[in-house]
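Contributing new complexes? Match this layout with magnesium ion.
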Amino acid sequence: MSRSVVLLGGPDSGKTNYVGRVWPALDAKKGRLHIAQQPDDITFVLEVTDHLNSGNFAPRSEHADVRRDFEVVVTEEKGGAETSIVIPDISGELWLNAVKNCEISTDWMDELRRADGALLFARVGSDQDVRPLDWVTSKRMMSKVRLPEDPGLPTQVMLCELIRFLEISLVDRPDGGRPRVSIVVSAWDLVDHEKFAKGPRAWLEHEYPLLAGRLADVERLDIRVFGLSVVGGDLKTDEACRDAVQEGGLDGRGWVAVQDAAGKWERNEDLTLPIAWVIGA
Ligand SMILES: Nc1nc2c(ncn2[C@@H]2O[C@H](COP(=O)(O)OP(=O)(O)O)[C@@H](O)[C@H]2O)c(=O)[nH]1
Ligand SMILES: [Mg+2]
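Output block (do not edit by hand):
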């Protein structure tokens, strides 16, 4: 059975680095999802993995208009049923334009209809993050810098719109359940202890109040929020992390933040969890 999981999110939200990191995680067969067969052509994924292995995040792709699919056959455990998953990494610029122009190409609409679920990315500390200006911040900003002509579409508006796309396009699960969406808050290694403890959902609700309201009334989708750190630290600023990756490789580095039964947020080394949950039983 072929299932697909779509990756959505604006530019710079962490999609590509996740794909490059989740590949070796699937290959290592230590997490919930394992690869069952060697995939065909995954050159672009391997390039991203190589960047991470050398201690660098993958640079942003120059080609804004590319769509790259990562196709791989996985099983939930050894000997379990095989599932082919297709993960199209459609560039953030394309998602952004779709939202700006209020239209999503029929091509993607079909892709979303075929999909079993989605991973929606948002990132901590992105300079591509666009905030709506309120009176206080704009006054403060005007005293320092000149406002850009067009500050662009606020990130929270884009996230709300992407959720709307998912609501209208994803079909119910084979068992009749609501389609699942993992919201992945990437670069979760950048938050302090207090924010970590409150969790990525609280962070989203605080950073993007409009999204908080939206999340509260989504009924069509089954949503779970994960925090993500692809290598366990910030390769741009954390030298110890970079050294550790360069010396020891990616194995055992990186984690997702998940809530335990008691509601406490914890790090889990299994980077496949956001996908495993979406396609899982
Ligand atoms: N600290 C930290 N930064 C990350 C992580 N993942 C991605 N980033 C940063 O986010 C940037 C954009 O990531 P990318 O995967 O290219 O985003 P995409 O445009 O959505 O594909 C990277 O260049 C990194 O600076 C992470 O796990 N931790
Ligand atoms: Mg990308």
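Reviewers usually confirm one structural detail per submission. For this one: Residues 2-279 form a domain with the Rossmann fold fold (CATH 3.40.50.300).
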